[in-house]
Amino acid sequence: MLLAAPRGYCAGVDRAVVAVEKALEHYGAPVYVRKQIVHNIHVVQTLEKRGAIFVEEVDEVPPGAHVVFSAHGVSPAVVQGAADRGLQAIDATCPLVTKVHREAVRFARDDFEILLIGHEGHEEVEGTAGEAPEHTTLVGSPDEADTVVVRDPDKVVWLSQTTLSVDETMETVNRLRARFPNLQDPPSDDICYATQNRQVAIKKVAKNADLVIVVGSANSSNSVRLVEVALEYGAKAAYRVDYAHEVKQEWLDGVNTVGVTSGASVPEVLVQDLLDELAGAGYGDVETVITAEEDLIFSLPKELRKDMTGKNDARALGGRRSGAE
Ligand code: SF4
Q1: Residue-wise over 263-273: b if at least 16 C-beta within 10 A, else e?
Q2: Where does dimethylallyl diphosphate bind (predicted)?
Q3: Could you tell me the pLDDT band of residue 312, with boundaries at 50, 70 and 90?
Q4: How many helices (H) and strands (E) does the chain have?
């Protein structure tokens, strides 16, 4: 078994999950959360058991209640909707998503047309596009780069969702640039460090694996990308599971080496369950393939830090270290 590292929780997911836990401890249940706090069914169900109530929109939250915005970010319209309802909002948007929002605002102010590379309907894309809807056009794939229509080809910039395939995004950018040579790049990578690191690790694992299993939920963009990247980089087969018991016996037929990784929203306990399951099937010889070290931690949302001041709790100042559940 080849176990990819880094894998699992990133700093933004860790912060968002701890934010809900801390809100429940500090304000008491229920605490409302708009959308899944992170795209992992196990995380959502665990928080539900502790008293979190997940809603689709802020108009489902009783006036005056606490509501947490998810790690994927929200548009200004959602922030305004919560304020109009008198909600106590706690913004758990990942700081690396907020960075892309700021870029969108700045380029729109300078009258650029923003070609936002991302998946239609994904919450992060809705939030980022909502910062400058009049200036933003979504580009969903390399093929769409060939047909997108722009107002002024000399005043275009590309931005992207944080959890895309690095290779596919660069193909989209190259095809855009072939049509719009003056296309401007974002000031720094929009695809975040965690997405990039997990893709680099699985590329190294995949070339030596007959089978790759990715732990992650179906709506987790970076988990689904890990399956695609594993197949592109040499894995003979690759599957995604939420839980270890979803592994099918026939996947293992004729397989000598299994590669394992997990998406950025996946707690490590789910990976350990998979390792136990695979050890039982004869894949107990584990080699960890390390391609990067991560030690980034984000401080908790400012609303929480302010309310928790004086509680003398060190975790009021920051999230857990990445990798812990
Ligand atoms: S995947 Fe990246 S952008 Fe998304 S929460 Fe994690 S660190 Fe933030």
Answers
A1: bbbbbbebbeb
A2: 39, 72, 122, 220-222, 265
A3: very low
A4: 11, 12
User: What are the φ/ψ torsions at residue 279 (nearest 5 degrees)?
Assistant: -60, -40
User: Around Cβ 247, how many Cβ atoms within 10 Å?
Assistant: 18
Does 124 participate in catalysis according to the annotation? yes
Under 8 Å between Cβ of 142 and 172: yes
- First-to-last alpha carbon distance for the chain, in angstroms, is 22
Q: Of all atoms in ligand 1, which is nearest to the CA of residue 163?
A: 1
Residues in the annotated binding site for [4Fe-4S] cluster: 10, 94, 192
Ligand 1 — pocket residues by CB below 6 A? Answer: 10-13, 71, 94, 96-97, 162-163, 192, 194-195, 222, 264
Q: What is the sign, positive or negative, of the torsion defined by CA atoms of 115, 190, 17, 225? A: positive
Position 200 confidence tier, pLDDT thresholds 50, 70, 90? very high
Closest CA to 16 of 41, 45, 47, 49: 47
Q: One of 124, 126, 131, 294 is an active-site residue; which one?
A: 124
The residue length of the chain stands at 325
Residue among 265, 100, 318, 299 at smallest CA distance from 192: 100
Nearest-angstrom CA–CA distance, 75 and 29: 26
114 pLDDT higher than 50: yes
Compute how many other C-beta atoms are within 10 angstroms of the C-beta atom of residue 313. 12
Q: How far apart are CA 307 and CA 170, in angstroms?
A: 43
Residue nearest to atom 8 of ligand 1 (CA): 12
| pLDDT for res 318 | 52
Cα(163) to ligand 1 centroid in Å equals 7
What does the block give as tokens for 321? 């270290």
